[in-house]
Amino acid sequence: MTYFRHFGLDREPFGTTPDPEMFYKTLGHEDCYERLKLAIQLQRGLSVIIGDVGYGKTTIKVALLQELQAATRPEDGFEIGIVNNPRDCRTDGQFLRAILGQFGLLGTGRTALDLTTEFLRYLEAQHLARRRLLLVIDEGQNLAGSQLEILRTFLSFETPTQKLINIVIFAQPELEEKIVRKRNLAQRVAMDHKLNPLNRRDTAGLIAHRLAVAGRPPGAPPIFADDAVDVIYERAGGIPRAITTFCADCLVEAVFLGRDRVDGALAAEVIGRRVFTGTPGTDRVDRTDRMPEPGGDGGRREDAVQTRIPIGATGSNGIVPGAGADAGMEFGAGAGGLR
Fold this sequence. Notes:
GO terms for molecular function: ATP hydrolysis activity. By secondary structure, this protein is of the alpha/beta class. It has helices at 27-41, 57-69, 92-102, 112-128, 145-155, 174-181, 183-186, 200-213, 226-236, 240-257, 264-272; strands at residues 46-50, 79-83, 133-137, 166-171, 189-194.
């Protein structure tokens, strides 16, 4: 059903997929996006993007990857590997092989040390060939402690002037405490950003932007009345995904009723009928239990840590892991028993 034609639109304005064209850059999202790109271009190592469910992490990720993959000059390009959910890897060996496989490596080593050495040799070869690497970890809140240690080891592979690999982690707030507990890793975070809910102005801007991209002519009467925007903002709590979901529901209902405009009463009625809103404390069934991470302590947290992750300096010489105790690999027994 092309319901959007009823409003003179060319495409669906409030789809459920992370379409980069629909990416509305608030000041916070713009700051995150531009600083993330800069950190990657400068080969600074680890970047961490924190945001609760529906805050726009996936949209930022997709927009970033699309821009990087569209680079026309070889020096601007990246070899990109993506691990969509670390929870799918039950052992450290599986995690390492998943990473190596993303870069076309077979991962023939028997232990975590063998696999890490294989990856280091690959990084060295790519560096000599002047090719840059980017590893993207999604659902980073599911990273186990030993998996974070593996990433820390990767970050110690460097020349005197740059890291041999960029790592970007997109995660829900549960990751914050895990990183804060690992000072050696926290000090390697070169860029971090915590996404926040939208305010009322940005909620209106997001709605207008999506309608414009979908073909709403400039100067056309607004489809959503101001009081409808107020209701959507309040009920969504500023969460972008909830805002788009509520807007889509309102447009479909308006079509059924033969209306060309959504007012506050209609928005309130439509949202009020939803069983699942996706906003904290408003769903009729609001479960906060979280599945435990592999080998973890249950993974449930009552209070999100709001501390900004500290940024620290690194500095080893040559393309080798950092010297001293910091260079030690401390992987779990699942991938070869290194300790």
